[in-house]
Design brief:
The complex is a heterodimer of chains A (about 350) and B (about 800).
Chain A (H helix, E strand, L loop, with lengths): L1 H19 L3 H12 L4 H7 L8 H38 L18 H13 L5 E2 L5 E3 H4 L24 E3 L5 H9 L4 E10 L11 E11 L4 H16 L5 E5 L5 E10 L16 E10 L1 H6 L8 E8 H9 L6 H4 L2 H4 L6
Parallel strand pairs in A: 1-4
Antiparallel strand pairs in A: 2-3, 4-5, 5-9, 6-7, 7-8, 8-9
Chain B lengths: L1 E3 H4 L12 H10 L3 E6 L8 E11 L7 E6 L5 E6 L9 E5 L4 E2 L3 E2 L3 E3 L2 E3 L2 E2 L23 E2 L9 H5 L5 E5 L10 H12 L20 H4 L2 E3 L7 E8 L8 H9 L7 H13 L3 E5 L6 E5 L5 E3 L5 E3 L5 E5 L2 E5 L3 E2 L12 E7 L2 H11 L4 H8 L6 H16 L2 E2 L4 E3 L9 E4 H8 L5 H10 L3 E5 L2 E5 L10 H12 L22 H15 L3 E2 L5 E2 L1 H5 L5 H6 L20 E2 L4 H13 L5 E13 L2 E13 L13 H16 L4 E4 L8 E11 L2 E9 L1 H6 L6 E7 L20 E10 L4 H11 L6 E9 L3 E10 L8 H19 L2 E2 L1
Classes of the chains: A alpha+beta (about 350), B alpha+beta (about 800).
Chain lengths: ~350, ~800
């Protein structure tokens, strides 16, 4: 059979051509050359009609074998070439990986917000929840209800911004104590973070607007030991368990007994430095047991309820926590400053 | 208040703290009398010693100078060149050695003067800073100090003069007015250290020959004893006004007073010693004395020459119809002690604290006297203090003290007793103090203690008017025992009751702050007040702001602002955020994304409103390798807000493409915001005129919205995932430039077959008068895949509607 021989030699030629192809494109054109519709093998098969009916199936069988063999070879070779080509391509696809990624703005909370968050997060597992109050307060809430009658000398200590005869910018967050005691039924454990105002001229350590966190706890029986325990816990959580905490007697008209509390200086470890004015201690805030007059102001009976209250200076804590040299930086909103607080 | 240790030592033994002032500081601070500073005034006399002139010669090269050989410490002889002429051989003088620093930062060193070596300097009292503060009338010739011959050669000058002292600056809290005197603090120290008080010298008077009587001389009338519960007065005749002796000057100067003259100095001395303010009138300038309210509108010239117009509220000391002093605050010029004064009327009184404070505050006269009266003085000590003053004046300035004196004191003060039990102390302090130590402390405070069964009845002394409740006694006990004795309980919070909720506003603000932070924005913090004039530039369109949901009522101004720049409570956040921008541009922060959650303030219907707001700004553009396309900042701001709305779960917000215009926002580049149909602020590009005025070279976008509308839904519900994938179809329309593409988006949304379908703008090509805008529709098949026919039908419907409604064509 002439045709069978031809077929077999084409098979051999195609095999060689496939094997020697050096690119998938060349391989494909060889496939077209031999096996395409108009390819040489296909054309030869076209001549099958000239064969006898007995010969046809035999040749068909041979053809099928050849076709299968070449298809397998093609796939195998194609795989081989693709891999080769990809590895070739990889060499060309160099990328300067030292380049930076596209800029993404990081964002940051203001250090005052961050500090308030930290404070709230220490107290909230104990059941303390946040309350707020207005910045413009009546004389009653800011002073009188807190046992600071008109012309009381302790008003001298709080240089007050007046709105009119009866209203002031709150000089502390303590008026929130009264709002809470009026609105809610004890027992209570609340925090009141927020701004307060005193007519202090701006300098490195004074600002006419500043922030406090007020704390108030009211229950049937509350002692000075409870207050000391809570604030010591708080300060150790905030500054680390190594700090020492000291309570000193002080005076606030709305607490009795009253105290100020200090932590051992975190900069010099209590040895004395310029930050703590050589005292080894940093003043953090004031506190005390709720004065009976405060309960009376809110129409609660001091015979039934006892409590403690405390105040924290947020700027001061932020200054200590983040090593900020000047209180004015908080209110300048310079991005060079704000960007330093990107870390959560 | 400043305290001198030497002075305290007059009343209680504290000389052991001269070398260890920190010990006493700590004791006082722990007892609630915070020592803010200690200072040893003798330190300024370091390297200044007593010297003796051994030989005195003329300077060989200068007529006016002399050469002295001066013996100093351990017999050492130094040559000193001296310009003074009042010294002679053998004189004891004051020698400043090299290393000494005289007032005015004048450092002494060895030097050559006209060829002769001078190893130090012989000094005058002016050079030591002793003369300047005295107001001596006798003009002494300039000369060096000649010390008494008994001065010890070689000794340090401060030791020789007894200048060794420690000055304690104590922060006395308003409740402890009893400690505003050396006697008071000494009493406290005595109690704390369990040391007895030394008996102060009792006032003694030289027997006067004359029978001067104040009562025969004067009429005294106190019109209202409620404002002036006690008034004492006495006359001293024939005094000689002169400068005070050195010991008196030094004591006063050491605690911060200026020496004036002997009589005035004594009154100040008694004030600092006993805490009783006194006033001396020139007797010959007054005819009678009465205590009464001022007359409305009357003029009064104070000691310092200032003319005050009185309101009728002040308590005054009056001579007939004329006010001669503001009671407890300041004396009058016309009756003040002058160098020619011969006869003095001394006043010691107890004026009502509130009354004095009101007057002092009103006129801004925070005098030492007003300070003490407004905190309350010991009214039982008034007479004693006056007697001591008179005796001291007589001793120093001579004269005769009147035999009699006024003491108007119809209702002597008697402190109310307080009942307390040990169990009260135990309950509130958290530990149980010993009853015996409680009694010891109460007695130490000069309280009267009575014990009956378990109840202690404590009567405080007259000088502790702050002790009225048992809580006050608890504090006293805890304070004197030491706060360190109070144990630490485990941290207490709410237990056994339902936990409470956080304040909603706080929660919402906290959430917004955190979302904006995570979006890469920086939080600002501005003062709540600012400059009215500057704000006005932003507040011109009150109506527009109102219809944007940012309305405000009457302005709220501070009555006593620090400056006009900090006077108006801000009615809008945008101005201060704008200021932040200009500050940052000045500091080369060329791009930024900032936000603030803060309140604004105004007055409405006679009440003050405080409304929380979110304000934002972004400017410039980050320039780096990858930034090719400049995105207008308005869109950065818009996308940040949409990010926020999505995080807050705020649905149903709509941008208004034609909002009312604002003076500070570019009218062509502004969007209003509506949430649930309510006006909710704006965003926009900064107005070009403002950019021009403030020389801002960059693109800036600003926005502000009321916080109460930025409340999203708390519920988050999922939908099942569709089984079939959506098909996308793109449509490109040619739009005139003044037709917002957003309107087409809105319209297409309405025409989409299902609410889950969506449309977005994917491309925009600008031509001259129109823009080609491509919209991509995403269409979700319902039960079976879309057929081409169905898709074509939807597409045709949309195209037809859009082209007819907006008169635009499909590209």
């Amino acid at each position: 059979m002439e045709i069978k021989k031809k077929l077999q030699s084409l098979h051999e030629l195609a095999k060689k051509a496939y094997s020697s192809s050096d690119s998938s494109q060349a391989l494909y054109s060889e496939k077209v050359k031999y096996m395409g519709k108009k390819g040489e093998i296909s054309r030869l098969m076209g001549e099958m009609k000239n064969l006898s009916p007995e010969e046809r199936p035999l040749l068909g069988k041979v053809f099928n074998q050849i076709q299968k063999d070449l298809d397998d070879l093609y796939l195998k070779k194609q795989e081989e070439l693709k891999i080769k080509e990809v590895s070739h391509l990889i060499e060309k696809e160099t990328l300067d990986v030292s380049l930076p990624g596209p800029h993404k703005s990081r964002g940051a909370l203001h250090p005052i917000s961050k500090t308030i968050d930290r404070i709230v997060n220490i107290f909230s597992p104990l059941g303390y929840t946040v309350r707020t109050g207005p910045f413009i307060e009546s004389d009653w809430y800011n002073f009188e209800a807190l046992n600071i009658p008109p012309f009381h000398p302790s008003r001298d200590e709080q240089d007050t911004f007046y709105i009119n005869k009866s209203h002031v910018l709150r000089t502390h967050t303590s008026p929130v104590q009264i709002h809470v005691l009026e609105r809610e039924k004890p027992p209570l454990a609340v925090l009141a973070p927020g701004a307060a105002f005193r007519s202090d001229d701006m300098d490195a350590s004074h600002s006419p607007m500043f922030h406090q966190v007020e704390g108030l706890f009211v229950d049937k029986k509350v002692s000075l030991a409870d207050l000391k325990g809570l604030l010591s816990y708080f300060l150790k959580k905030l500054f680390g368990s190594h700090v020492k905490v000291r309570f000193r007697p002080s005076f606030f008209p709305f607490t009795e007994p009253s105290a100020e509390y200090d932590v051992s200086c975190v900069f010099c470890k209590g040895k004395g430095c310029s930050f703590c004015k050589q005292s080894g201690w940093i003043e953090v805030g004031g506190c005390g047991l709720v004065h009976p007059k405060v309960f009376e102001s809110a129409k609660l009976s001091p015979d039934l309820w006892q409590g403690f209250a405390f105040g924290l200076g947020v700027e001061r804590l932020a200054i200590i926590l983040y090593g900020i040299p000047d209180i004015r930086l908080f209110y300048q909103n310079d991005l060079r400053f704000l960007k330093q607080f990107e870390a959560l | 208040m400043k305290f001198s240790l030497q002075w305290l030592n007059d009343f209680v033994e504290v000389s052991d703290f001269l070398d260890a002032p920190q010990k006493l500081s700590l004791i006082l601070t722990q007892a609630g009398l915070e020592v803010e500073e200690t200072e040893n005034p003798s330190l300024q006399f370091q390297n200044i010693i007593v010297g003796q002139i051994k030989t005195l010669k003329k300077h060989p090269n200068a007529d006016r100078l002399s050469l002295c050989e001066v013996e100093g410490e351990e017999g050492r002889i130094r040559q000193i060149v001296c310009g003074a002429t009042n010294q002679k051989e053998g004189d004891k003088v004051v020698l400043a050695l090299p290393g000494a620093v005289l007032p005015g930062d004048f450092k002494i060193k060895t030097s050559k003067i006209r060829g002769e070596e001078s190893c130090g300097m012989l000094v005058s009292s002016k050079e030591l800073g002793l003369e300047e503060s005295s107001n001596s009338n006798e003009k002494k010739e300039e000369g060096i100090i000649i010390l008494p011959s008994k001065a010890v050669t070689g000794r340090s000058y401060s030791e020789e003069m007894g200048f060794d002292d420690v000055i304690f600056d104590v922060n006395v809290t308003p409740n402890r007015s009893d400690c505003l005197s050396h006697l008071g603090l000494a009493r406290e120290i005595g109690c704390l250290l369990n040391r007895p008080l030394k008996k102060p010298p009792s006032p003694s008077f030289e027997k006067s020959k004359a029978t001067t009587s104040v009562k025969k001389n004067f009429n005294l009338k106190v019109h209202d004893m409620t404002f002036c519960p006690r008034y004492c007065g006495r006359l001293i005749e024939g005094v000689t006004i002169a400068s005070s002796p050195l010991w008196l000057k030094k004591r006063l100067e050491s605690v911060g007073f200026k020496s004036i003259n002997n009589v005035v100095d004594v009154t100040n001395y008694i004030l600092m010693e006993l805490g009783q303010p006194l006033h001396g009138f020139d007797r010959d300038k007054i005819r009678s004395v009465s205590v009464d309210n001022s007359l409305k509108g009357e003029k009064f010239t104070a000691l310092d020459g200032e003319v005050l117009t009185l309101t009728g509220e002040e308590l005054t000391i009056r001579d007939g119809k004329k006010a001669i002093a503001l009671a407890g605050v300041i004396g009058g010029e016309s009756t003040a002690i002058s160098p020619d004064t011969k006869n003095v009327f001394i006043e010691a009184a107890f004026f009502l604290p509130e009354k004095v404070r009101r007057t002092a505050r009103h006129f801004g006269l925070e005098t030492e006297s007003a300070y003490r009266f407004s905190r309350g003085i010991d009214e039982s000590l008034v007479l004693e203090a006056m007697k001591r003053a008179c005796s001291l004046i007589q001793k120093i300035a001579g004269g005769e003290v009147s035999q009699d004196f006024f003491d108007e004191y119809p209702k002597p003060f008697s402190p109310s007793p307080i009942s307390i039990q040990m169990k009260d102390l135990e309950e509130r302090l958290g530990y149980k103090p010993e009853a015996s130590s409680f009694v010891k402390w109460m007695k130490g405070l000069n309280c009267e203690v009575r014990e009956e069964k378990d109840v202690f009845t404590i009567t405080p002394p007259s000088f502790r008017r702050d002790l009225t409740l048992k809580e006050d006694l608890m504090e006293e006990t805890a304070r004197l025992e030491g706060y360190h004795k109070v144990p630490l309980s485990p941290p207490r919070g709410l237990s056994g009751s339902e936990p409470l909720e956080f304040d909603n506003t706080y929660k919402q603000k906290e959430k917004i702050n955190h979302v904006m932070e995570s979006e890469g924005w920086y939080q600002l913090l501005n003062y709540s007040f600012g400059e009215e004039k500057f704000y006005e530039e932003f507040l011109k369109e009150k109506e527009s702001l109102h219809s944007l949901g940012l309305g405000f009522g009457e302005k709220v101004l501070l009555q006593n602002p620090l400056s006009s720049q900090l006077a108006l409570m801000k009615p809008l956040l945008a101005p201060d955020i704008f200021k932040t921008l200009t500050h940052n541009l000045r500091h080369n922060n060329k791009s930024g994304e900032v936000f603030e959650t803060a309140p604004v303030f105004f007055k409405e219907e006679e009440s003050f409103k405080q409304k929380e707001r979110l304000g934002l700004a972004c400017w410039g553009q980050w320039e780096d390798l990858w930034s090719e396309k400049k995105i207008p900042n308005l869109f950065r701001l818009k996308s940040a807000l949409e990010f926020l709305f999505s995080k807050m779960n705020i649905k149903g917000y709509v941008w208004d493409f034609a909002p009312p215009s604002l003076s500070f926002i570019h009218p062509e580049q502004m969007l209003g915001l509506k949430i649930q149909g309510k006006a909710a602020g704006f965003i926009g590009t900064l107005h070009p005129t403002l950019k021009l005025k403030y020389k801002i070279p960059l693109d800036v976008a600003l926005g502000e919205m009321p916080l109460d509308l930025l409340k999203g839904s708390a519920s988050l519900k999922t939908k099942p995932l569709p089984e079939l994938l959506p098909v996308e179809r793109d449509l490109t329309f040619l739009l005139p430039t003044d037709l917002p593409a957003g309107k087409i988006v809105e319209e297409i949304k309405k025409l989409l077959p299902s609410s889950s379908d969506s449309v977005q703008i994917i491309a925009l090509y600008k031509k001259e008068k129109e823009r080609a805008v491509s919209f991509r529709l995403s269409l979700n098949p319902k039960e079976k895949p879309w057929t081409d026919k169905e898709l074509l039908k939807i597409q045709d419907h949309i195209v037809k509607k859009i082209t007819t409604k907006f008169s635009v064509s499909l590209k």
